[in-house]
């Protein structure tokens, strides 16, 4: 990982993820490791590399409190003189459903429209009071390529409101939100709706390139002879379709394969991954049962019943999770269907405004949207490490430390990806070797981390997850009495994002 194997051989005895401790090192650290592991839910097995022995496993208790008592905070606000305050007024989403289930007969703009209508109903904002609409999506339906515009028209927004669609893999709606922040900060707009949608039940499947070229030529043919000649050139192989895949164009590697390699490089065991997945589903079930997922809006699916909750939350047992076979690297991989996020249909929408405009219209904002950063790394060996690189940068921009953050919401693409990021963030060696930093930023405490579940359990519609993360941070800050929240996510192409959210005074 992170280059050729021999590149690791220098530091491997000290702390390389690909190396194992020497016998003396094992003896020296044995007592300390045993003491730490006894009190932790996740215990690295003997298969874990020296990352596990140096950094230890993170405690992932599923009994972390879902609702903390409100605390009195003395931290200063991040408001800056002369800088416009930009606020999250409201955030909603359709229920996130497993692809191929209740939404199967719909189209992406149907879900996006439902989210926009839910936002209108929740806020009561006049349909002509919004200045701009931005949506994120990844796998576009060609008939509605600018899905933001089609959904806005369908939801009844004024046809005078401009709308555009952005794509940045799993952080597409994060990009939609920060684009909205930019428009407001620049004085171009006062109220912007941002959101995201993904519809995996019906993805575009293309003919082969040779077949496409033949069909285009047929469309241009002027004589019967030309048409017959082109038809006669078609071979059986031309009829093979091109199926979409969650893979990197630059490397041709699937994201699951990358997650498996990343987990192996950081010594993240199958046990750790399964326990994190179980934690995610268990906490999501508690949050759903406790009515904490208040961003979900009910949606009447045409020809079907009303959908009012996510359907991918399925707490299981370690025994059941352990029976699943590796999904990508067979037979020795550790990434399975259960410790990976699943293909999901869903849409989200948020109303972002200048604080001045929001108060003038009688709204009570949920949170301030403060600093944010985007990062990019090598898409081959550091594809999913966006949170590790983005977190220290956004904290420095905000003048905060990790201990100042009360609520963490990280995107869970794979359990192995999350655990690898936590170990990278908690490593001085990784910070010094790969990030050019003097010391580590540290790993988030698990009692503050994704305590209402995450993408592994709630679902991950690629283009819609970012808005869910930010809205969840705002709701958790209010319920738990915190002041600062941190959102972080990885994305295809080796990219990543992080944002600091500040609670609005109650």
TrEMBL record:
One MF annotation (Gene Ontology) recorded for this entry: acetyl-CoA C-acetyltransferase activity
Keyword Transferase: yes
Enzyme class: transferase
Top-level taxon of origin: Eukaryota
Subcellular location, principal: endoplasmic reticulum
One GO process term, biological-process aspect: fatty acid beta-oxidation
Any single GO CC term annotated in Swiss-Prot or TrEMBL for this entry: mitochondrial outer membrane
Ranges of residues in domain Thiolase N-terminal: 86-356
PROSITE patterns hit by this protein: THIOLASE_1 (PS00098), THIOLASE_2 (PS00737), THIOLASE_3 (PS00099)
Residue ranges constituting the Thiolase C-terminal domain according to the UniProt record: 364-502
EC numbers: 2.3.1.155, 2.3.1.16
Keyword Transmembrane set for record: no
Pfam families named in the record: Thiolase_C, Thiolase_N
Catalytic activity: dodecanoyl-CoA + acetyl-CoA = 3-oxotetradecanoyl-CoA + CoA; hexanoyl-CoA + acetyl-CoA = 3-oxooctanoyl-CoA + CoA; an acyl-CoA + acetyl-CoA = a 3-oxoacyl-CoA + CoA; decanoyl-CoA + acetyl-CoA = 3-oxododecanoyl-CoA + CoA
The entry's keywords: Acetylation, Acyltransferase, Endoplasmic reticulum, Fatty acid metabolism, Lipid metabolism, Membrane, Mitochondrion, Mitochondrion inner membrane, Mitochondrion outer membrane, Transferase, Transit peptide
Pathway: Lipid metabolism; fatty acid beta-oxidation
Signal peptide: none
Subunit and interaction comment: Heterotetramer of 2 alpha/HADHA and 2 beta/HADHB subunits; forms the mitochondrial trifunctional enzyme. Also purified as higher order heterooligomers including a 4 alpha/HADHA and 4 beta/HADHB heterooligomer which physiological significance remains unclear. The mitochondrial trifunctional enzyme interacts with MTLN. Interacts with RSAD2/viperin.
Family: Belongs to the thiolase-like superfamily. Thiolase family.
Full protein name: Trifunctional enzyme subunit beta, mitochondrial
């Amino acid at each position: 990982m992170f280059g050729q194997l021999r590149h690791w051989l220098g530091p491997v005895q000290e702390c390389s993820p690909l190396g194992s401790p020497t016998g003396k090192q094992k003896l020296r650290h044995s007592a300390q490791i045993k003491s730490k592991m006894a009190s932790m839910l996740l215990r690295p097995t003997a298969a874990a590399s020296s990352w596990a022995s140096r950094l230890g496993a993170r405690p992932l208790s599923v009994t972390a409190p879902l609702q903390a008592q409100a605390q009195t905070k003395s931290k200063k606000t991040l408001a800056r003189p002369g800088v416009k305050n930009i606020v999250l007024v409201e955030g909603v989403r359709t229920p996130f459903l497993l692809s191929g289930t209740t939404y199967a007969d719909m189209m992406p703009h149907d879900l996006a429209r439902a989210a926009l209508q839910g936002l209108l109903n929740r806020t009561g904002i006049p349909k002509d009071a919004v200045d701009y609409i931005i949506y994120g999506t990844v796998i576009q339906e060609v008939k509605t390529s600018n899905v933001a515009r089609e959904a806005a028209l369908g939801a009844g927004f004024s046809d005078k409101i401009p709308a555009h669609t952005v794509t940045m893999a799993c952080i597409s709606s994060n990009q939609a939100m920060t684009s909205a922040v930019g428009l407001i900060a620049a004085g171009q707009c006062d109220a912007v709706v941002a959101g995201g949608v993904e519809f995996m039940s019906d993805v575009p499947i293309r003919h082969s390139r040779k077949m496409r070229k033949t069909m285009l030529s047929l469309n241009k043919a002027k004589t019967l002879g030309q048409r017959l000649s082109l038809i006669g050139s078609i071979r059986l192989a031309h009829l093979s379709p091109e199926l979409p895949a969650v893979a990197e164009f630059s490397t041709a590697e699937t994201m699951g394969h990358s997650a498996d390699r990343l987990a192996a490089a950081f010594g993240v065991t199958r046990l750790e991954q399964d326990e994190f997945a179980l934690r995610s589903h268990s906490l999501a079930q508690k949050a759903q049962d406790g009515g904490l997922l208040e961003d979900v809006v009910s949606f009447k699916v045409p020809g079907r019943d009303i959908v009012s909750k996510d359907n991918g939350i399925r707490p299981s047992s370690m025994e059941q999770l352990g029976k699943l076979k590796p999904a990508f690297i067979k037979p020795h991989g550790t990434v399975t269907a259960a410790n990976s996020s699943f293909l999901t249909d869903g849409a989200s929408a948020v109303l972002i405004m200048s604080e001045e405009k929001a108060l003038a219209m009688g709204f009570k904002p949920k949170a301030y949207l403060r600093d944010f950063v985007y990062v990019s790394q090598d898409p081959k060996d550091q594809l999913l490490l966006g949170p590790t690189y983005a977190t220290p940068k956004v904290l420095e921009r905000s003048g905060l430390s990790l201990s100042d953050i009360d609520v963490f919401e990280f995107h869970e693409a794979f359990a192995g990806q999350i655990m690898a990021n936590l170990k990278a963030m908690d490593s001085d060696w990784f910070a010094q070797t790969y990030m050019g930093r003097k010391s580590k930023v540290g790993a988030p405490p698990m009692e503050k981390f994704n305590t209402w579940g995450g993408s592994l359990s709630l679902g991950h519609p690629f283009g819609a997850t970012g808005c869910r993360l930010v809205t969840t941070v705002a709701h958790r800050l209010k319920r738990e009495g915190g002041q600062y929240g941190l959102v972080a996510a990885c994305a295809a192409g080796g990219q990543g994002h992080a944002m600091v959210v500040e609670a609005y005074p109650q």
